[in-house]
Amino acid sequence: MVLLAGKDLRSELRGREILPPMLIFGFILVFLFTINFPAAAGRAPIPPPSAGGIGSRTIAAAFLWVSLLFAGVLGFSRNASMEREGSRMEGLLLAPVDPAALFAGKALANFCYLWILELVIFPAFVLFFDVAPSTLLPGILPVALAANVGLASAGTLVGAASQYVRARELILPLLLFPIVLPLVLGAERLTASLLAGAGLGPQSQWFMLMGTFDLAIPAVGAVVFEYVVNE
Amino acid sequence: MTIAKTFLAWLDRSQESIVRNLSLLVPLGGLIGLGAIFFWVPTDAKQGVVQRIFYIHVPAALVAYVAFGMVLLGSIAYLKTHNRRWDSFAHASAEVGVLFTGACIVAGMLWGRPEWGTYWAWDPRLTTTFVMLMIYVGYLLFRAMATDPTRGARLAAVIGIVGFVNVPLVHYSVDWWNGLHPNMRLINFNGPQSLPWQMMVTFAYMVAVFAGLFILLMMLRMRLENAQIALAEAEEAEAEAAHPASPAVRSGPAASPSPMGATQ
Predict the structure, then answer these.
(1) Which residue among A46, A146, B24, B82 is least crowded, i.e. fewest CB within 10 A of its CB?
(2) What is the per-residue pLDDT across B52-73, written as a single tens digit (0 to 9) for each?
(3) Phi/psi at B48 (nearest 5 deg)?
(4) B184 touches chain A (CB under 8 A)
């Protein structure tokens, strides 16, 4: 038994495939939680300008979006690795399709997965956090739209890239989380504002930022995707 | 692209002399700079002695930003031209950029402890720097973990582009997220004329020293990488020369029709 453990540890010492991504991933998680849960990090949560006393609501919104991010990463990973199995990517590349279209197609699929995921998670959130559906409902749709476009396109790009590295399941979230941070922070703030009954108005600046992300990342992704997937 | 070609040609011609000169100038200049920081510059009225770390901290940050800009340029040029030199340019910039970002963060923490009472705060600028560091560590990891080095270089180039586009977005998002922390602003310059001239001179001088150090480290790193590429190519050529009849040797004994393979 000790010998077996020794074998694993030795091969890790030589290959160094598990520990570096694991350590950095752990680091990023600590970062993600401390920045998203301000109260837990020892500083008072800062309420949005026009809504007072919503500390717990901010945390509820953070839970929602961090959970969605984790669940989303699983989907992105599967969606990308699907093409590697049985060399399906080679088949797609042989077809007379622009790599940009390939990117758009895969991003659209991920976009749909995210909506389906949210269709299940939002009601569960309403139920478990005892939120009145009417406070959340029309407003959460544009928030989810703004988040999903960016998440799906960044997830598709990084997901495809991570297919060509070792320890890909670890590497994908490692790079994706820092990149999509603006989206997650924005979605959380907007959701917290909804939960506080303040509507989207006071936090509407976030839509501008998320919109910029939703334009910039898909545009860059469409241009560079061919360099990721081509042989 | 002609600019890119001219630049590479210039790099080839002058690399050696730059390395030679800078490896003398940078340590010497660094020593003089340290002397200025510790003995010449007046002590900050409010912050006391710890303020002197800014002559290290801020130049490191500036150089790190420039380095990541160079990763972007090198990445674009590499994807356009497929010239390995651009890849090693971007790679070297990223490595040295990560190093300087790390130095900047450590220096900032050493300052933060006595000044803010904490090593770390989720101040917008700190958070942006941290996220930037994570993205470029990801860049280096992608290279290191790629199954095929050429593809690793291409993936890294993609990250070099996406990462740089992302940095301003991250900055705004954490800025809004954390609201205003006026007490956590870094040095408030209030117009440069309010600072003693010795401070300005030392600061500008240290920026120059750090820029020199950056160029030196980057050139050394590029030289190392080019040497590695040349070595790999030479070894390949030698293997080819030793066994001209059987090119399959390189792909391992299992694939070669050698007697050993036949007995297995």
Answers:
(1) B24
(2) 788 888 888 888 888 999 999 9
(3) 75, -155
(4) no
> Measured between CB atoms, which of B141, B170, B178 is closest to A182?
B170
Q: What is the number of H-type helices and E-type strands within chain B?
A: 7, 0
Query: What residues of chain A have any CB closer than 8 angstroms to a CB in chain B?
Result: 17, 20-21, 24, 27-28, 31, 34-35, 38, 41, 43, 46, 154, 157-158, 161-162, 164-167, 171, 174-175, 177-179, 181-182, 185-186, 189, 205-206, 209, 212-213, 216-217, 220-221, 224, 227-228
**What does the pLDDT read at residue B251?**
46
Q: Cα–Cα–Cα angle for B84, B89, B94, nearest 5°?
A: 125
pLDDT tens digit sequence for B97-147: 999 999 888 888 888 777 777 777 777 777 778 888 888 988 898 888 888
Beta bridge partners of A205: none
Tell me how far the alpha carbon of residue B158 is from its chain's centroid: 17
Task: Dig out the tokens for B214 from the structure.
Answer: 């950056």
Interacting residues of B255 by C-beta distance below 8 A, sequence separation 6+: B248
CA A15/CA B108 separation, integer angstroms: 34
Distance from B114 to chain A by nearest Cα, in Å? 18
Mutate to test the interface with B, among A12, A24, A149, A227 (most CBs of B within 10 A): A227
Contacts of A130 (CB under 8 A, 6+ apart): none
- State what percent of residues in chain A have pLDDT above 90: 10
Q: Which of A177, A181, A207, A203 is closest to A54 using CA atoms?
A: A203
Flag whether residue B127 sits within 8 Å of chain A, measured between CB atoms: yes
Helix axes A133-162, A168-195, angle to 10 degrees: 160
Indicate the domain borders of chain A.
20-229
Whether B179 and chain A come into contact, CB under 8 Å, resolves to yes
Q: Is B90 on the interface with A (CB under 8 A)?
A: no
Give Cα separations from A70 to A3, A62, A184, B44, B185 (angstroms).
35, 12, 11, 47, 33
Taking CB atoms and an 8 Å limit, are B137 and A46 in contact across chains? Answer: no
